[in-house]
Design a protein that fits this description.
The structure holds two protein chains of two kinds. Chain A is mostly helical. In chain A, helix 10 crosses helix 11. Chain B folds into two domains: 61 residues; 43 residues, no CATH class. Chain B contains six helices and no strands. In chain B, helix 1 packs across helix 2. The radius of gyration of chain B is 21 Å and the shape is extended. Classes of the chains: A mainly alpha, B mainly alpha. At the A-B interface, helix 1, helix 3, helix 4, helix 5 and helix 6 of A face helix 1, helix 2, helix 3, helix 4 and helix 5 of B.
Chain lengths: 239, 117
């Protein structure tokens, strides 16, 4: 492992911030739906930094300890997620029961399918815990995966891939299944494909986008409640 | 002043959640409990939306920056990823496909398949 000389690690945080702000500004300018999903700024920032560290042979441990401040700020940011959750809640009070139940069903399905695949492929426990909470926004996935003993960074990457896939092919899937109802499409998109899917839903139709936002917010809360209980249950009963 | 109040509410919820988790033990993540506490306070009307808005809005706006360092951590596990390629590809394909179909089908069962605008 090489060391940066003179010590340039203090640049970690400014570099992350500058890179992300630049990529997000560029992404806002992209009009084409497919291209917009593919140039997701979080995805590109992680990919570019990973490529830099690997190719310049720089140790991740150094990068991680010098960007610790950002990881600490994730905790109050997760608490602040209560605000959009609250704002979404008031919009769907009359359909709340139906949407909460279908969202919960979707989350249970995502965790269950991932767990069955882990059993079929006979993967180590750290890996099966890493795929238990994937149908949810990245910060929640990170923290739930961590609490289950999984590799949170791997979960973060998979979450983004799942979102991209849903954004690119989700609406084709609805067409194949002959489901055109905006509420159905939106709730499915928000539950399965979080923010990246919601962005695609918003560009499809405002109503689909609205329901997707609601489902995304709900599934953040429901994943936090369901997965830490469901995953140990699956491990204990099926293994 | 409004920034002080807003950040104080968020940090108090986080601290309270950490204390609760410290005393009851278990692996439930404290920030998520903090989120639930704040949501309860908002829904019950004890905390008003505009109290938390001044700090919550900017912090949510730049939130992706906070998980980039953690996301890059996958490079520490490249060997594990390479040796489990088929598993990870099946997860990425099957988890969203099955969830999208199941959720949309259940919703369509109650609300109809067609667009009802």
């Amino acid at each position: 492992m090489t060391e940066l000389t003179p010590n340039l690690w203090w640049l970690s945080i400014p570099f992350i911030v500058a890179l992300f702000v630049l990529l997000r500004a560029l992404n806002k300018k992209v009009q084409n739906g497919v291209l917009k999903s593919l140039t997701n700024p979080v995805f590109l920032s992680i990919a570019i930094i990973a490529l830099l560290l690997v190719n310049l042979n720089l140790p991740y441990s150094q990068f991680s300890s010098h960007s610790q401040l950002l990881s600490w700020l994730l905790e109050p940011a997760i608490v602040a997620l209560a605000l959009p959750l609250y704002q979404q809640f008031i919009h769907v009070r009359k359909n709340l029961l139906l949407i909460v139940s279908t969202c919960s069903l979707g989350i249970v399905n995502a965790t269950f399918v991932a767990f069955v695949l882990s059993v079929l492929f006979d993967v180590p426990n750290s890996l099966s815990a890493s795929v238990a909470a994937l149908s949810v926004t990245t910060p929640i996935s990170l923290i739930v995966t961590d609490s289950l003993g999984g590799i949170s960074s791997l979960a973060a990457a998979l979450v983004i891939f799942i979102g991209l896939l849903g954004a690119l092919f989700g609406f084709m899937l609805f067409k194949l299944a002959a489901i055109y109802n905006h509420e159905a499409q939106g709730v499915a998109m928000g539950t399965a494909c979080h923010a990246i899917g919601t962005a695609a839903a918003l560009s499809e139709h405002p109503k689909v986008g609205a329901f997707s936002s609601v489902a995304m917010a709900l599934s953040a809360l429901l994943t936090a409640i369901i997965v830490p209980l469901l995953y140990p249950f699956l491990v204990n009963t099926l293994l | 002043m409004k920034y002080l109040l807003s950040s104080a509410i968020i940090l108090l919820c986080l601290t309270l959640a950490k204390l609760v988790m410290h005393f009851i033990g278990g692996s439930f993540p404290a920030p998520l409990l903090g989120m639930v506490i704040l949501l309860t306070l908002l829904l019950s009307g004890i905390v008003k939306e505009h109290y938390v808005m001044p700090c919550a809005s900017p912090i949510l706006n730049i939130m992706p920056i906070f998980f980039i360092p953690a996301g890059v951590g996958f490079i520490e596990h490249i060997d594990l990823i390479k040796s489990n390629g088929p598993f990870l590809v099946s997860v990425v394909l099957l988890v969203p496909t099955s969830t999208l179909l199941l959720v949309s089908a259940v919703m369509a069962y109650f609300k109809g398949r067609d667009n009802n605008d």
